[in-house]
Amino acid sequence: MIAYPPEPWRIKMVEPIKATTREYREQAIRDAGWNPCLLRSEDVAIDLFTDSGTSAMSDRQWSALLRGDEAYAGARSFYVFEAAVRGFYGYEHVIPVHQGRGGENILSRCLIRPGTHIPGNMYFPSTRAHQELNGATFHDVIVDEAEDPQAALPFKGNVDLDKLRAVIAEFGADLIPYVSLAATVNMAGGQPISVANLTEVCELAHAHGIPVFLDTARAVENAWFVKQREPGWGDRSLAEILLALCAPTDGAVMSAKKDSLANIGGWIGLRDPVLAEQARGLVLLYEGLHTYGGMTGRDMEAIAAGIAESVDEAHMGARIAQLEYLGGRLDAEGVPIIHPIGGHCVCVDATAALPQIPRTRFAAQTLAAAVYVDAGIRGVERGGVSAGRDPVTGENRFPPLEFLRLAVPRRVYTRAHMDVVADSLIRVHRERDRITHGLEFAYEPDHLRFFQARFRPVSGSSIW
Asked: What are the N6-(pyridoxal phosphate)lysine sites (modified residues) in this protein (predicted)?
């Protein structure tokens, strides 16, 4: 039996889950245009669509809500929030935003001009969308192993320094406003970047006068992998490693809905006071006053408490163990998953699971629909649908990885829930030959289409 430590918390409040029949779920997914994102949450038994904003807050966080100062300007809660970010992440200038993509929007508007180029360790849909909408082209400089589901590299989020040098040589530093790094890398399956590689990237970029900005949404999870896998870091605390990851960078964008265990909120952290003033000015236009940024005082108090809880090693150890348990069960039964298992999700390799479905018929989207019909489990496609269309050619992008992401919310589900998920994926995998055709677009929005797109089976009224 795969090791599974007891959860380091007790349950004080529960939310009922509605039982549904297969026939009910078949109609529900059909009504949702074969897009699990468009399902009503009450029709979902186990919701693994995202770990963003879906965590269970602690008693300390709920208590912190009552301390919220809702003053429009200069609320006490902002300074509590600011001190937590400074203390644990190390950035002097802390600018609140309503969530991570608010920060992506502000940073892109501050730094990008048309015709520029952004290198990074694999794209994320909303990050790249903001970069492209402001006129930049994204260049993937991640190591090749990140695109191989079976590669066992411990840090598949690392940057290939030769690829980065090639981008700088081709376009010149003046046309590269910044390097965009993620820790961990979502679209590679939650894979971490090492402290050594991140530091080398910053040294190379800074030698050319190029700043480096870090997506820290899951940087504590990244710190856990550093502690477990990177030589010289095993005796350091998660808090120390988190500071070390951020230290060489020029700033960060944070969705506090991930590591910080909050249901809403985020921040931009910066070192340059001039850039910080520019960002605050745009926050006033797009988010709210620079001391609340679209959040309530309650939100900021809950985030501050969540930041401190996020670096607790018992919490993070149990979280990663839960993912390893789920992934281990799938792996043992031959369900093809991305290796190593990531920090926030288990990812099923859809091209290997459904080889009969061509990329143009969206195997991961098809698999997501099948798993929902089977047991009411909601995951999300990461592949051709999420990648969108090339803004120049209009052609669909098909990244090397096409997978169903099962993102597990923090402190929400138990081992029994993980067993239900595993049993369903194993069952669908055993019956995979019944899935003979995929999906095509019935409606396709212009941006972040995986959220609102609607699909239809290529043949008939069902996918199996």
From this structure: 258
**Structural contact between residues 167 and 117, judged by C-beta atoms closer than 8 angstroms:** yes
Specify the pTM.
Answer: 0.95
Written as six digits, the tokens of 297 are 């005082």
Query: Closest Cα to residue 143, out of 181, 171, 170?
Result: 181
Structural domains in the chain? 22-51+312-457 (3.90.1150.10), 59-310 (3.40.640.10)
Q: Percentage of the chain surpassing pLDDT 70?
A: 100
Judge whether 273 and 279 are in contact, CB under 8 Å. Answer: no
For residue 108, pLDDT over 90 is answered with yes
Q: Fill in the DSSP letter of residue 55.
A: P
With 60 as the cut, is the pLDDT of residue 351 above it?
Answer: yes
Q: List the strands of the sheet with 403-407, edge to edge.
A: 345-349, 403-407, 380-382
Contact in structure between 184 and 190 (CB atoms under 8 Å): yes
Q: What is the pLDDT of residue 2?
A: 58
Dihedral (Cα; 183, 226, 178, 102), 10-degree rounding? 30
Query: Which residues lie closer than 8 Å to 259 by C-beta, 6 or more apart?
Result: 216, 217, 218, 219, 220, 221, 307, 310
Alpha carbon 354 to chain centroid, angstroms: 24
Q: What is the pLDDT of residues 266-325, one digit of tens each?
A: 999 999 999 999 999 999 999 999 999 999 999 999 999 999 999 999 999 999 999 999
Hey, what amino acid is at 201? V
